[in-house]
Amino acid sequence: MKNLSKLGVLLCLLLISTSATLLEEGYQPGDKARDFNLKNIDDKMVSLKDFPDAKGFIVIFTCNHCPFSKMYEDRIIALDAAYKEKGYPVIAINPNDPVKQPEDSFDKMIVRAKDKGFTFPYLFDETQEIAKTYGATNTPHTFVLEKESNDLIVRYIGAIDNNAKAANEVSTKYVESAVDALLADKEIEKKRAKAIGCTIKWK
């Protein structure tokens, strides 16, 4: 019995260690981010290199079905409206497996984008490679990137703001503060904030 108990403890420690390792994967602020080439809802392939005049990007992993993603849709549209012309357009990416969550199929992405009037690319990460590389875990999960010469540097990772459920009760706008700091050539005060939302539906 003692041996079984010790084995159980060891297994728990191994699971905790594995989970911690998985959480540490992906980018950290200051890392170089990779570009991608993903299918947009207009059936065209989109890469960040397609935006030569951009100063950076607000990359948001989001989806159709998640209640948190839905609560943030209007705020994501507002971010694009506020920052696209300043050089930081929104690039939305759906990382979910449509087999596990049919509401997140490519066809339904097209419908959702039209219904909501998305003003930004809404890309399908079919292989989930980009979400895994970036370290996205939730929808929504935001990565603010800044262009430096030929590199894309991660400057902020996490939540859009500090109140998912009530836009009118937001007291800290993490993404806006990060992009405003970059535009003013200032240091970003908060470079990470826990992403709150639905877990990504992995294959």
Quick structural gist:
Helices cover 33% and strands 21% of the residues. It has 203 residues and is of the alpha/beta class. The protein has one domain (27-199): Glutaredoxin.
Care to describe what's here?
The protein is α/β, with parallel strands linked by helices and 203 residues long. The chain has one domain: Glutaredoxin (3-Layer(aba) Sandwich). Helices cover 33% and strands 21% of the residues. The chain has 5 helices and 11 strands. Strands 1, 2, 3, 4, 5, 6, 8, 9 and 10 form a 9-stranded mixed β-sheet that branches. A two-stranded antiparallel ribbon has the order 7-11. The longest helix is centred in the first third of the chain and has 23 residues. The N terminus is likely disordered.
Topology (SSEs and partners):
Blueprint: H1 2-24, E1 32-33, E2 38-40, E3 45-46, E4 56-61, H2 67-83, E5 90-94, H3 106-116, E6 122-124, H4 129-134, E7 138-139, E8 141-148, E9 151-158, H5 174-183, E10 192-193, E11 198-199
Parallel strand pairs: 4-5, 5-6, 9-10
Antiparallel strand pairs: 1-9, 2-3, 2-6, 4-8, 7-11, 8-9
